[in-house]
Specification:
Layout: H1 4-40, H2 44-47, H3 53-65, H4 69-77, H5 85-104, H6 112-132, H7 137-149, E1 158-159, E2 170-171
Antiparallel strand pairs: 1-2
């Protein structure tokens, strides 16, 4: 009789804890189902209400789609060091995309001082992505696009300018041996 009471109390405690765990998992599954429905419907604001990294990613993506690139990058930066490789890849890819999208709205001839740093940051984001996920073909393509807009200095011909004493070398994008236009 003395053993029945502690055993009963212990079994009741195990049942209560198990029930709480099951209830938590059911609630999490319900939340996840609503998150997926919101994404499928394209309702990013509703998906952003989901707790956790997935909700933060949806909120950052909603900012990006609204053209609020700086706020989107700030939101993405909070997820940049995630241990989930697929989430981290998506964050780095989208950060690079925010830079490229912002450059698309800038006149490269008139406002190069704003566009060039953004292109460098885009290239940096895509390179970080390819270090994490080398098989990410969209990231490779976008890096190539950014390189076409702004080639790396190391890929351009470097030549010494005669009569210049400075050890600084000048970069010339035109072939010095070819005919001038």
């Amino acid at each position: 009789m003395a053993l029945k009471r502690p055993l009963t109390v212990m079994l009741v405690m195990i049942a209560v804890l198990s029930g709480a765990g099951v209830a938590r998992e059911v609630a999490r599954g319900w939340q996840l189902a609503h998150y997926n429905q919101a994404l499928a419907a394209g309702e990013l604001a509703r998906a952003a209400d989901y707790a956790g990294d997935a909700g933060r990613f949806a909120a950052a993506y909603a900012l990006q789609q609204a053209g609020k690139f700086q706020q989107a990058r700030i939101a993405y930066a909070k997820l940049e060091h995630s241990t989930d490789i697929s989430l981290r890849s998506a964050v780095l890819y989208n950060m690079g995309n925010t830079y490229l999208e912002q450059v698309a709205g800038i006149d490269m001839q008139k406002d190069a001082d704003r566009a060039l740093p953004l292109l460098e940051l885009a290239k940096s984001s895509y390179r970080a992505l390819l270090r994490v996920a080398p098989e990410h073909w969209d990231g490779r393509y976008n890096l190539e696009r950014a390189l076409q807009l702004l080639p790396d200095v190391g890929e351009q011909k470097v030549m010494n300018v005669e009569g210049r004493r400075s050890p600084v070398r000048t970069i010339n994008s035109v072939d010095p041996e070819g005919a001038l236009p």
